[in-house]
Design goal:
The structure holds two protein chains of two kinds. Chain A is α+β, with helices and mostly antiparallel strands. Chain A contains two helices and three strands. Chain A has a domain at 7-63: Ubiquitin-like (UB roll) (Roll). Helices cover 18% and strands 24% of the residues of chain A. In chain A, strands 2-1-3 form a three-stranded antiparallel β-sheet, covered by helices on one side. The N and C termini of chain A lie far apart (50 Å). Classes of the chains: A alpha+beta, B mainly alpha.
Chain lengths: 94, 250
């Protein structure tokens, strides 16, 4: 058994926010204690109403070296933004 | 001393001394996460101390405030249970002391929610959510240590046995406590003790720990001001600044 507790990434939904937002990471031996620790480390100043924790090892990330191939083709395609359409006044927050 | 004043000091001094004990571990927890969790509990208890001692100082009517009550009373005037003044020891000792305290504290706060003293009911109302979390956390850690490795099991069982004789003082009611029960201010000892024993038995079963004998003889005296030698050292550290530099502020 490894001496070091595994790393967990912590996501908090704030009082007003709609989605859970990544706030940081911590160490814990299992999911239950990760939630407890997240509460103790990341919600001390009334930051949240909900906590998600995910094992850092379970997150699949894109490779920084793929940045060009993945993201640059979108740079030249401004027509994908919905800014060319007149929107009715009543529709807000789009 | 007025019975209600005694009762308020007992609650305030329990929270004060346990908070001070946990504060000593700030920066020394076994992991950053545990360190912060313990410090959070210490701060919760300090907040509760302010409410209890603030009310006590007002009721006393001698012009003292919550700070005077905390920093200028000597050991013989403190009314905390012997349990909270027991040393931090190893982490199993710290967590077991916390678990015994939290279990009693949780059921007491529940009972005080319906106190006939409006102000006490308000303090209980403000404290109960914090105390609920404290109990969940310390119970969880007792289970983890008990049902963990052979070494953690041995340490938490030793702590459970050693601290057991301090777990019963809170349920030994004297004239002041009984007067509060009579006025509907405080819940009776029997219901609190039954709830305490049931919860401890439940957690110990899950933790694969052997529960000490509920009929064992219990240490007593702290509530009447007869303390262990530990309290003097705690106060020497906690009160030094106000004793050496009276009225010092930051």
């Amino acid at each position: 058994m490894s001496k070091e507790w595994p790393l967990w990434e912590v996501f908090i939904r704030s009082q007003h926010g709609l989605a859970h937002k990544h706030v940081g990471s911590l160490h814990a031996p299992d999911a239950g204690m990760a939630v407890n620790n997240a509460r103790d480390v990341y919600t001390r100043r009334n930051e949240g109403v909900s906590i998600w924790v995910v094992r850092a090892a379970d997150i699949v990330a894109s490779s920084p070296s793929d940045k060009g191939a993945l993201f640059e083709p979108a740079n030249s395609k401004v027509y994908r933004h919905p800014t060319f359409f007149p929107m009715p006044e009543e529709v807000k927050n789009l | 001393m007025d019975h209600k004043l005694t009762y308020l000091l007992r609650q305030g001094d329990n929270a004060l001394i346990l908070s001070q004990q946990l504060s000593k571990l700030c920066g020394k927890g076994p992991a950053l996460e545990e360190d912060m969790a313990l410090t959070n509990v210490a701060l919760d208890l300090l907040g509760q101390t302010r409410m209890w001692l603030g009310y006590a100082a007002e009721l006393e009517g001698r012009g003292r405030d919550e700070d005077d009550m905390a920093f200028l009373r000597d050991a013989v005037d403190l009314r905390c249970c012997l349990l909270v003044e027991q040393p931090n020891g190893n982490y199993a000792d710290t967590m077991m002391r916390q678990f015994y305290f939290d279990t009693w504290h949780y059921f007491l706060m529940q009972g005080l929610l319906t106190s006939t003293d409006r102000r006490i009911a308000d303090i209980a109302e403000k404290s109960i959510k914090e105390v609920t979390y404290h109990l969940r956390r310390s119970g969880d850690l007792v289970v983890r240590l008990g049902d963990g490795t052979a070494e953690s099991h041995a340490k938490i069982q030793a702590a459970a046995n050693a601290l057991w004789m301090y777990s019963g003082e809170a349920f030994l009611y004297d004239a002041a406590d009984l007067a509060m029960v009579g006025q509907g201010v405080a819940p009776p000892s029997e219901t609190l003790r039954a709830a305490f024993l049931e919860h401890v038995a439940e957690i110990f079963a899950e933790a694969t720990l052997t529960m000490p004998d509920p009929a064992a003889w219990m240490q007593r005296g702290g509530k009447q001001g007869r303390h262990s030698e530990h309290l003097g050292f705690i106060l020497a550290e906690m009160q030094f600044l106000q004793r050496a530099y009276p009225g010092a502020e930051w």
